[in-house]
Amino acid sequence: MFRRPLAAFAACWIAGGASAATFGRAGVLLAGLSLAAALAALALVRGIGPRTAAACALAYALAAVHRVWTDERNVTELAELAEAAEAGEPPAAVEAVLTIDSVPRIDGDRVMFRARLESAAFGGGEPRELRGERVQVRIRLKEEAELETASRWRRGDRAAVSGVLERPGEAVNFGGFDYRAYLYRHRIHWLLEAKSADSLEPLGRGGGAGLTVLRAMDRLRESLAGRMESLFSGRQSGYMNGLVLGVREQLDPELYAGFAELGLTHILAISGLHVGVFLLGVGFLLRLVRLPRETTLELTAAAVPFYVLLTGASPSVVRAGLMAMLGLAAARMNRLKDGMNLLAAAALAMLLYDPYYLSDIAFQLSFAVTAGLIALVPPVRRALPPLKRGRAVADLLVVTVVAQAVSFPLTVFYFNRFHLLSLPANAILVPFISFVILPLGTVALLISFLWPDAGRLLARAAEAANDATFRLVEKLAERLELATIWSSPPLWWILAWYGALLLIASRLPDRSSEREKTSEGGQETETLDLHAAPGRPHAEPRFNPAGRRRMRARIILPAAAAVLLLAYAYQPDRFDRSAIVSFLDVGQGDAVLIRTPTGRHILVDGGGTLRFEKPGDEWRRRLDPYDVGKDVVVPLLMKRGVRRLDLVVASHLDTDHIGGLSAVLKAIPAKALLWNGTLSGKEDGEALLRLADARGLRLIAAHSGLAPYRLDDGTELTVLWPAAEPLTSDGRMPVMRDQNGRSVVLQLALEGFTFLLPGDIGVAEERVIIARRQETGADIDVMKIAHHGSRHSTAAEWLDYWRPREAVISAGRNNVYGHPHPDTLGRIAAAGARVRRTDQNGETQYRIAGGTLSVRTANGGQPVNHN
Description:
27 helices, 46% helix, globular, nine-stranded mixed β-sheet, seven-stranded mixed β-sheet, CATH 2.40.50.140, alpha+beta, single chain
C-alpha cells in the first residue's frame, strides 16, 4: 500500500474519520499518536518514504478535524424544541412550508419523503424563518382515493404541511437499530407526522437547478420503470426494475429475503458491474459512428453522471461512477494508473463531500470488496499453475472466493448470518445474472420503445431465465441447516482478519513465470523467474519438495491465524460463564431472552404486532409489513450469537406474546416449545403450533405437575401455572379464547437468583397460585409484572408473598391501554420494589457473574449491582 502514496493517504484519511466518529477527543489524539509512531518507525527502517509518512499523518489529522467540524455543524435550528422533547414534552403541533427533496415513496397507506423547511409556526404562533432544516415526513392516508393525490407529489414541490414535529426514536435494545443516529447521518433531526393527504397543500415548484435536474431524472426513471412493468409481470417486474434501474420499492420481500440469505443482494445494488455494462453499451454505440478514441472516451465519461443520477446515486454506484470517470480521464491523457489509486481518489472525493458516507453499509462493502479484489486477486491468480484450459472458470472462482473472504467480516458484523452455499450461489448466479439477465433486460427495455414486439420477446426470454434463477435461489435458501449465525465481531477482529488475508496473499508463491513443461527425451524442464517482484517469493517448482515445504512454511502461520480468528468469531463467549436475562423492548408485548452460564438459550414469548384491519382496508397493507419478530427479535438474537434455542416458551396464544415467534422459528433452530396446552381459536396461534411441529420441535403442554426443566447445573425452570394439563374428555386440546388466565407462569432459578415470569395472569390466578404453594412466602430477586402492568393483575398480596427486589414492566410507549396503570405502580412502590419499564428504559438486562446480580437498561441509568 505504501508504494501507492494516494492509497496510503486515503487509508489514513479513513482512519482519522473513523477515529473521530468512534472515540472522544482523547481517543482520537491517542490513536493519532500511535499512528504517527508507527509511521515514524516505518520511515526509519525505510519501509515508507518520509514524505509519504508525513502525508499519511496529515491525512489522519485533517480527516479527524473534518469529521469533528461536520459534527459541530450538524445541529438542529430548533434547539429549544429539542430540549423540550428530551424533557418529555409531547410532540409540537406545526404548520410548515417546505420543499420536497427526495422521491415520495407510497407504501400502503403511508407516504414518506424528506424535505427542507422554509418556515414553521408552532402552536398557532407566528411563522419562523428557517435555513433549510431537514425533516423526515410521514403522512398517513385516510382514504384509498388519497393514493391518487399522493402519486402527484414530486421532488422539488413546495407545500404547506400541518402536523406534529417529534424527535426520532433511539435504539431501545442493546445492539438494536438506532433510527435517530441513522437520520443524524443524513442531517435530519426531526420527524414530521401528518394525517391524510389533505394535510399537504401544494404551493407550486420550488428548489434550485439541482432539484430541477433530479426531478427530471425522477420522471425519466419513473417512465422507464413503468415501461419495465409493462414488459414483465408479477414479481418479475419488481425484480427487473431493481436489477436494471435500481428501483427496489416493488421488489418482492420473500424473493429479496432469499437473495439476502445467500449473500446475493449485491447483484441488486447498482454498482461497478452495472456501470461496466453501461459503459460497454455506450462505447459500442460510439464505435458504430467511428468517432476518434479521444472523443469516445470524453463522451463516455460525460455519460457516467447521467447513469449515476438515473439509478439513484447510491454510494456503490457513486463509487463506481467516480472510478470510471477518473479512469476514462486518465486514459484520455494516456496516464492510466492502477485501480487502487482510482479507488483511493474516489473514496477521498466522497468523504470530502460527506464524511458520513464512512458509516454507510453500502459504502463500506463497495470499497472494501473493490479494494480486496484489486489487492488480492492478482497474487492469488499468480499462485495458481498455468492452465491450458478452464482459465476463465479459474478466474471466476478466484474473484468469487476473494470477494467472499473480503466481504465476510462486514457481512457477519451487520447481518450476523453467512450461508455455506453463498460461495457456489455467487459463483453460478452472479455471472449468469450479470451477463445474461441484465443485458437481456436492458436491451428489452430500450428496444421496446422502438420495436415493442421485439422488446416483449426478449422480456419473455429474460423471464424464463429469471424463473430458473428464482427456483435455484429458493431451493438453496431453504437449506437452513447450512445458514450459520455469527454475533457481531469487534473492530479489532475485523482489522485482524484483513491483516491475515493480506499476509496470506503476500506469501503465496508466484507461478506466473513458469514455462509449460515440455517433454524432451522423457525429461521435464522448468525455469524459475529470477526477477520476481521485490518482497515476493521466487517461483517455486511444483515438483520440488523443498520448494513445497518452504511455501507451506510461509503461509501456515497467517492461515492458522485466520482459522483461530474464525473460531473466536463463531463463539466469542465460549469461556463466558455469566448468565443473562434480557427483557427485550418489543413495544406492547413480551419477549424475554435467557442465557445460561453454559451458553444455552431460552426465549419466553416473542412480542407481536397487533393489526386492526377492517374489510375494505386491504389497500393499507405495506409491501413488507412490520413484524416485531422478523424486524426486532430475530436480528437481536442473531447479533448476540444465538444459533439455537434450547427452549421456546409461549406463555399464552395472544398475539402480543406469540406474534413474533413464527419469524423466530423460521430463522433460528429450536428444540422444544412449551405452551399452555390450549388452542386460542385464532389463526396465528394455530399457525405457530403447526410451524413448530413441522420444524420438528418437541411440543410440551405446561402444567404445574411437570418436573422442573433443567438446562444445566445452575439453571432450573419450574412451571407454577396452569394447575393441570388441559385436555377435554375426548383427549383433545380445548379452545380457550380468553388466554390470559391460562398463561404459563414460570419460576426461574439461575445461579442462586430467582426470577418470576407470570405472563398475563390476573388477580384470581395469583390467589390460586399462592394458595397452592406450601411456603408462607418467598423472596425473589426479579418479578416481571403480569399483563404489562394492568390494574387487574399484581395484587398487593401477590407482591407481599413474593417480595421482589426488582420489578420489570413490559409495555409499549403511549399504548392505547394505559399500561402500566397508576394503581399497579402504586402497589409496586408500596412493596418496595424498584420498577424498570421498557416503555421508558428500553431493554432491561440482568447479568449474573461472580455471585452478583447487575442490571442495566438501554435508555438511561447506570448499571446497578445487587449482591
